[in-house]
Every structure is written in C-alpha cells, then in structure tokens.
Design goal:
The protein folds into two domains: about 70-155, 2-Layer Sandwich (60s Ribosomal Protein L30, Chain: A); about 160-325, SPOUT methyltransferase, trefoil knot domain (Alpha/beta knot, 3-Layer(aba) Sandwich). It has helices at about 85-95, 115-125, 135-140, 160-165, 185-195, 215-220, 235-245, 285-290, 305-325, and strands at about 1-5, 80-85, 100-105, 130, 150-155, 175-180, 200-205, 230, 250, 270-275, 290-295. The N and C termini lie far apart (about 55 Å). The chain is of the alpha/beta class. α1 (about 85-95) runs parallel beside α2 and α5 (about 185-195) runs parallel beside α9. The strands form two sheets. A six-stranded parallel sheet has the order 8-7-6-10-9-11, sandwiched between helices. A five-stranded mixed sheet has the order 1-4-3-5-2. The chain is elongated, with a radius of gyration of 22 Å. α6 links the parallel β7 and β8.
Length: about 325
C-alpha cells in the first residue's frame, strides 16, 4: 500500500455544494478482519500491475505501510467508523464533523471526477490516502459494493435528545423516530429522505434496531454526516417525553382509518413521525403512546410500502405543509 499520487491531469475544483446521490447496497454481515494486508496481489482479471507500494506521495507525504487490516468495530453507539462508497466518503470529508483517520482507494480504480474531488478534500484536511490492492479492499468492506473506496473515521457523535426537542433558529422540531427497523439498506434510504425533507433529528432505539453500518452510510449517500441522530433506551418513554414538550407524535400504520394527509394539521408545530418495520409495523406500546396514527392510502393490490418510501411520503407531507404556511 502506498499514498495515492495526485492525478497528473488538471483536477477539477472542489465542489462543496449540493452533491449528487449514489445508490446503496446491502450489509453482508460482520466485517472481515484479521492479519496484515498482503503487500502484493491483484484482483482476478485486472490489468497486470504491481500491487505493492507506489513510490512517492502527494505533497511530499512519506510512504508507509498501512496498519493491520481493520476488523469490524464493535458498535457501542451510533457507529459509522467505516464508510464505504464514493458519495458517502465525499460527504464525510465535506461535513468535517469528525476526524477521518485514513482513506483506502483501490489501485485499479478508474479515473473519475469524484475520486479527484475526494483526493483534494483529503489533501486539504491532511488525511492520508492509500492505494491498496482491490482484493484487500473488498475483503475489508462490509457492504456489497464499496465502489473502490473505504474511509476509516471516528464514530458518529450522538445528538442530545433534549436539544432535538427544542426550537432552534426559528424552526420547530421536525423529528423522525424509527421503531424496529433492522435492515441497513432501509435505514440508509430513510436517512437520505430525512436529509432532503429538512428533518431536524432522527431517534433510534438502542436495542433491536440497526444503527450506522457501512451499508447504512453508503445507502444514505452521506446523509449520516448531516442528519442529527440520537439513541434512546426505549421509544415509548421517548414518545412520552416528546409529548410532554408539546411535540405532536404521529405514528404511521396501515391499519389506521386516518390518512397521511391529516399530518398537515400538526405540521407547523413541533412534530415527530414514528415509522415501524415493514413486517409488524408499530409495536403495540409505541402505537398506544402516539397522539394519533395515520395510514398511507394504498389503491393498488400491494398492501404496504417499504419503510423508506413511507418515510419519504410522510416527511415531505410535513415539508409541504410548512412551506405553504405563512412564516
């Protein structure tokens, strides 16, 4: 492994504006760790080339071997220590919310503007970028398609729950709580929707729910760097606390006779949308604690929507009502 050389061609200017979004993948289980990465080797079918360290380094950085290959971290909080996928890594660098330890890029990666962009952002932040054999990178990856890049960073910091329940900068709380969602692809897509709709915070249970895995980070297209998230010991208790603060708590469940369009009645106040898992929906206790429960009208043959699709509809219904309301 060696520090990645900057592109010889003129690199585009770093774009820190609204990025494009990339598709996500699925988690393949716990990460693969172990010994030191091999110093040679290449992906089957790749062009013949040396897979050892390249000489030289960007801006005079010394050449060094990487530390032992990372094993999957044991998540104690939100997670997010391993970020995979080009857009997710780019947003990690743009967000500047946490320290980035190192970035790996596959030696045989095809040239692309976003790779040059990542290199420039990393160089500006003084983050080491190493070129590694693709086999090493893919063995370390914990998502299905890391797109030839992995970043290692400090874990995400949890937002303060009490702060999320408070009006900030003139904006009433706009929260989303997740009840029993265990699929990382669904959580990542849900977070991406929340970022787009202007959600001010996401509430996740500490237990029996997925947190920020590499697949969540990749599927969110970097939204994990921008959407505040907090962990709570129990969602029913958290709902009671929100109601005590004057926040309307609206659950989504396909058994309700009220419809999604009733959300507009609460949207301009503090509001929390509660989403359940696709299989069982809201748990009994969570449903009982909500101020009201609404459903999404299903006019076809399929009985329900994916949780991330439901999140998109519900959050943008709140956004629509808020945009239509006089300031």
């Amino acid at each position: 492994m060696a520090p990645r050389k900057p592109s010889k061609s003129s690199s585009p200017k770093v774009n820190t504006g609204k990025p494009g979004r990339a598709p996500g993948g699925r988690d393949t289980g716990s990460g693969k760790g172990g010994g030191k990465p091999p110093s040679t080797g290449r992906t089957s079918g790749s062009p013949s080339r040396s897979s050892g360290p390249r000489e030289g380094g960007p801006r005079g950085r010394p050449i060094r071997q990487s530390d032992a290959r990372r094993s999957a971290p044991v998540a104690k909080g939100l997670g997010g220590e391993q970020i995979e996928g080009r857009q997710a890594v780019r947003e990690l660098l743009i967000g500047q919310r946490r320290k980035v330890k190192e970035i790996w890029i596959a030696q045989d990666i095809d040239p692309a503007a976003i790779i040059d962009d990542i290199q420039q952002l990393a160089d500006a932040a003084r983050v080491t970028v190493l070129e590694v054999p693709r086999r090493t990178l893919e063995d370390t990856a914990r998502s299905e398609a890391p797109q030839g890049i992995i970043a290692f960073a400090q874990p995400l910091e949890e937002a303060d729950f009490n702060a999320l329940m408070t009006k900030r900068n003139g904006v009433m709380p706009f929260l989303v709580a997740v009840d029993g969602v265990t699929d990382p692809g669904n959580l990542g897509a849900l977070l991406r929707c929340c970022d787009g709709a202007g959600v001010t915070g996401v509430i996740l249970p500490k237990h029996r729910a997925v947190h920020v895995t590499p697949t969540v980070a990749k599927t969110s297209a970097g939204a994990i760097e921008h959407v505040p998230m907090t962990l709570v010991p129990g969602l029913p208790v958290a709902i009671t606390q929100m109601r005590d603060k004057g926040i309307w708590v609206v659950g989504l469940d396909d058994s309700s006779e009220n419809t999604l369009f009733d959300i507009a009645n609460f949207a301009t106040d503090g509001i929390c949308i509660v989403l359940g898992s696709e299989g069982t929906g809201l748990s009994r206790l969570v449903r009982e604690r909500c101020d009201t429960v609404v459903s999404i009208p299903m006019l076809g043959q399929v009985s329900s929507l994916n949780v991330s699709a439901a999140a998109a509809l519900a959050t943008y219904e709140v956004t629509r009502a808020r945009l239509a309301s006089p300031a």
